[in-house]
């Protein structure tokens, strides 16, 4: 059973509509619908509120199957610093173009500086090396590899969150 299915099942057992649950959680009915059909997932605090409103523990709300199917993201986050610099250059060129179109005498010097500065800024943005930022998994934290399933997770778990292998046996 998935997380959304657990919410729906318990909500229906309590004879609550999506609207009634949404009102108790101070969210929209559409948000509850998205949680139940799996297109969205609430954060940890909202998950705890859902469990409290439904009268169950967070462990009951998040079934073991959902944890076992979970694969943490290992993709590095894209570096957008070069895009920000290039965007700044484009904005400078656009402002210079508007100032030139206004054709005010003293503004022409400012417009020329903005135009040249914008082009230089855009070129600098092109030359910025793109570095890969660390992904969601922080390798600096102590990790342990489960001998049963082979997946890595934080060292401080007493059992593997994926296959529930207990390290205390």
- Give the strand order, joined by hyphens, for the main sheet: 1-2
**CATH homologous superfamily title of the domain at 3-68:** lambda repressor-like DNA-binding domains
Which H/E pattern describes the elements?
Answer: HHHHHHHHEE
Main sheet attributes: strand count, strand direction, barrel closure? 2 strands, antiparallel
Describe the structure.
- By secondary structure, the protein is mainly alpha-helical.
- Among the domains are: 3-68, 434 Repressor (Amino-terminal Domain) (Orthogonal Bundle); 81-127.
- 54% of the residues lie in helices and 4% in strands.
- The protein contains eight helices and two strands; from the N terminus they run H-H-H-H-H-H-H-H-E-E.
- It has a two-stranded antiparallel sheet with strand order 1-2.
- A hairpin with a 6-residue loop joins strand 1 (143-145) and strand 2.
- Helix 7 (81-102) runs antiparallel to helix 8 (107-127).
- The longest helix has 22 residues, at 81-102.
- Mean pLDDT is 79; it is low at 133-137.
Briefly summarize what is shown:
The chain is built from 8 helices and 2 strands.
SSE diagram, text form:
Blueprint (H helix, E strand, L loop, with lengths): L2 H11 L4 H8 L3 H9 L6 H11 L3 H4 L2 H5 L12 H22 L4 H21 L15 E3 L6 E3 L15
Antiparallel strand pairs: 1-2
Helix pairs in contact: 1-3, 2-3, 7-8
Descriptive terms for the model:
8 helices; 434 Repressor (Amino-terminal Domain); mainly alpha; 169 residues
């Amino acid at each position: 059973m998935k997380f959304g299915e657990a919410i729906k099942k318990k909500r229906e057992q309590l004879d609550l509509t999506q609207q009634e649950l949404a009102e108790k959680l101070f969210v929209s009915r559409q948000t509850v619908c998205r949680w139940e059909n799996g297109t969205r997932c609430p954060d940890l605090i909202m998950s705890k509120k859902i469990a409290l409103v439904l009268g169950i523990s967070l462990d009951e709300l998040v079934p073991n199957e959902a944890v076992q199917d979970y694969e943490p993201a290992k993709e590095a986050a894209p570096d957008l610093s070069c895009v920000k610099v290039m965007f700044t250059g484009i904005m400078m060129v656009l402002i210079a173009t508007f100032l030139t179109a206004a054709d005010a005498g003293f503004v022409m010097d400012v417009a020329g500086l903005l135009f040249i500065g914008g082009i230089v800024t855009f070129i600098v943005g092109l030359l910025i090396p793109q570095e890969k930022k660390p992904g969601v998994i922080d390798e600096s934290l102590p990790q342990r590899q489960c001998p049963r399933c082979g997946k890595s997770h934080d060292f401080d778990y007493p059992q593997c969150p994926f296959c529930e292998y207990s390290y205390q046996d």
